[in-house]
């Protein structure tokens, strides 16, 4: 299995094309060139990471913008939203970046109207994969909200985007009761529709952010992200579209999902106290683990669901970064969370970065940075996963997401730049120990 994954990664790097010419964004080029630090290795890696999205994005004749994931010729709703987040730091002052971001948001709105169950599309608007991933509905909402939050530019909220919000909300509501209301099936799911579930108020999802099928179909990190996105949606409907009915509908669904997370998604563990499960089925079964892809349990404060010092999050974080977590791996070079999507015991830079972004001490942040620098196989880029004993063994020659997240990490953790929120969730009800 491991050799097959490595072979596929190598073949993808050789056979699949990426946009041939880098997108010209002078402010990004200037920011990369101006970045200087006594650590020459960090300087090289930050510059390469910040510029990476310019090599994968292109503005299209229809006014939209396309962002390829890397060495696969398709755009993921999740990846594209994450790949451009660092550019939000430069958007307020640079009209070219605002144009790019508006184009990305506009294209995502078209994708969602074509098929809200699809997670990835091609340049010519064909469905690349129809793996229903709840986070793929949440990411475009939070990207648009963050863009608006940073720039004050509400022009992204077009009639077309309003139709996309309608699709998102209708799909989420339908999947609250998947067995009764949904016609969605996929060959990778048990019997096409997944394992039995009980009604929880949460939203059923077929696949994880790793593109792997869920074992139990209430994926708590994605439910958390849905709460954030629905809160953002309610704000947009109320303040921009002035549609109080839709705002109330989004808010009501958000409250139902949140209640479901607190009732079904938290479990008592003797060593850690109450903590969040990774997946549950609403019938009493739960999986205690995490996956490197975001949203993850580790990323809960980053996505705006909770504060980094919340006791239930801290309980969960302590478990996730311990040997008790079956997806936590250690090696001579790095230690961190991996994914069932890649070889056993391999660490993902995405999870290392997320550990740093949610750390409360500069010592831990620096330790994470040192591991990330040590993971460089020689091309000064971050990859999908790597052998923590030998970083020259890795998957995905070209993978944009960890590079964009790395540049965001360096800016916020070491250069004093404020984090850009994905939402402003408040008044969440939590269980009591």
Task: Name the assembly state.
Answer: single chain
Distance between the termini: 42 Å
Instruction: Say what the CATH topology is.
Output: Glycosyltransferase
Number of β-strand runs: 14
CATH class: Mainly Alpha
The strand line-up of the biggest sheet is 3-4-5
- Count of helical stretches: 15
Low-confidence stretches: 1-18, 429-433
Q: Kindly estimate the percentage of residues that lie in beta strands according to DSSP.
A: 5-15%
Q: Report on the biggest sheet.
A: 3 strands, antiparallel
Instruction: Label the overall shape.
Output: globular
Structural classification: mainly alpha
Radius of gyration: 20 Å
Instruction: Kindly give the count of domains.
Output: 1
